[in-house]
Recover the amino acids of this structure.
């Protein structure tokens, strides 16, 4: 029998009345007229200005593809460690491949002696050595590492492509919600740095403190994240009042959230929100986060429509920002 779970009081989600994380039906944006699209964009914009999280349903990504991708992720994580080590992220020059439990630490200030209680795989845009960005030595650009599992690569690539298409549509909605042209962000999406990162969270038991969670409290680095979670639960989000609330699994949905880069781009108009994962389900938990980031060279400078009383953040580029964030949470990467 498993040890009883004993959560530190600060880790117990608050019971807050009313739905805090809105559910957005995306079909009218994909298939509707201008008025229908504007209405969806307004709902999304309201969520991004408030809690920075929403669920998207009727998003057009096939349920079968999501289910297959989960099945393939489980198949990989069930391999013996020596098989997984063949695609160890430390062998990659561009941050692709498998990282062990503890390999990522999303809250190094609190998780001092161990990283997150999860393992994962980083899958990015698959660029061979002749691609101009790779020839130029652009950090984070290059080939993926694939495990020796028949069909695995094909499923991951299909999911990667479908989520990239959805991410582009979500950015169109963001642009409308921000009062700029719908295609505003498209100019920075030539070879966007989008990453699929399947995760496996072992069950956690005993006394649980902030010193080690499934995923320590963090905000995401990039523009937006689209997350498929299984039915284990355990994702928590901190609302604007400072309460940690549950983001429970909703079948057929993706959880979408704003990352730091978009917060910066919008001068804080869109909110990048802290969240964390604690797997107290008593079983394995799997999730499929998809991080959507623009081109490495994309300048991230306060949008005119968000300027208000002035820019709050120094200009940066998407690439520099991502490198800074990866160095903060992956100790192996700092030496690169
Ligand atoms: C992340 C994250 C949540 C989850 O990887 O940034 O917040 O449910 N994941 O796995
Ligand atoms: Ni996250």
């Amino acid at each position: 029998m498993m040890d009883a779970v004993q959560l530190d009081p600060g880790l117990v989600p608050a019971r807050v009345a009313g739905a805090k994380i809105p559910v957005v039906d995306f079909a009218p944006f994909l298939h509707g007229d201008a008025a229908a699209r504007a209405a969806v964009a307004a709902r999304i914009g309201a969520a991004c200005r408030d809690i920075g999280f929403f669920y998207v349903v009727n998003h057009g990504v096939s349920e079968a593809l999501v289910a297959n991708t989960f099945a393939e992720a489980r198949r990989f994580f069930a391999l013996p460690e020596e098989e997984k080590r063949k695609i160890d992220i430390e062998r990659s020059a561009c941050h692709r491949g498998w990282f062990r439990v503890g390999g990522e630490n999303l809250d190094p200030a609190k998780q001092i002696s161990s990283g997150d209680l999860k393992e994962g795989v980083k899958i990015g845009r698959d660029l061979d050595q002749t691609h101009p960005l790779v020839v130029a030595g652009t950090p984070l650009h290059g080939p993926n590492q694939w495990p020796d599992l028949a069909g695995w690569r094909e499923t991951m690539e299909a999911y990667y492509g479908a989520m990239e298409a959805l991410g582009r549509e979500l950015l169109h909605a963001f642009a409308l919600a921000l009062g700029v042209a719908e295609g505003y962000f498209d100019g920075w999406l030539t070879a966007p740095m989008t990453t699929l990162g399947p995760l496996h969270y072992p069950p956690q038991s005993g006394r649980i403190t902030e010193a080690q969670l499934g995923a320590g409290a963090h905000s995401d680095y990039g523009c937006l994240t689209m997350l498929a979670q299984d039915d284990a639960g355990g994702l928590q989000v901190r609302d604007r009042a400072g309460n940690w609330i549950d983001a429970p699994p909703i079948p057929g949905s993706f959880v979408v959230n704003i990352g730091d880069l978009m917060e910066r781009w919008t001068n804080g108009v869109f909110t990048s929100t802290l969240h964390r994962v604690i797997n107290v389900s008593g079983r394995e938990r799997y999730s499929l986060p998809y991080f959507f980031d623009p081109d490495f060279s994309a300048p991230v400078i306060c949008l005119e429509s968000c300027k208000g009383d002035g820019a709050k953040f120094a200009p940066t580029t998407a690439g520099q920002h991502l490198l800074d964030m990866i160095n903060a949470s992956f100790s192996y990467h700092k030496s690169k």
Summary: The mean pLDDT is 95.
